[in-house]
């Protein structure tokens, strides 16, 4: 699923490193992945933009556009 988002959004390996690391370290948390990675995402420099997304069972998906200030 991460690869599909990478292709669709034109993201590189560095931009998905936290997601891949989370999957390797704690496994698939489904939609709760957003909450697990949110703490790490909050320490970005002002002006940084990002997308936080998670895909759960069935057709559940959460997607948030972020901009740090």
UniProtKB/TrEMBL annotation:
Residue intervals of the Chalcone/stilbene synthase C-terminal domain: 2-66
Keyword GTP-binding: no
This protein's UniProt keywords: Acyltransferase, Transferase
Domain of life: Bacteria
Presence of keyword Transmembrane: no
InterPro entries tied to this protein: Chalcone/stilbene_synt_C, Polyketide_synthase_type-III, Thiolase-like
Membership in a protein family: Belongs to the thiolase-like superfamily. Chalcone/stilbene synthases family.
Protein name: Chalcone/stilbene synthase C-terminal domain-containing protein
Source organism per UniProt: Protaetiibacter mangrovi
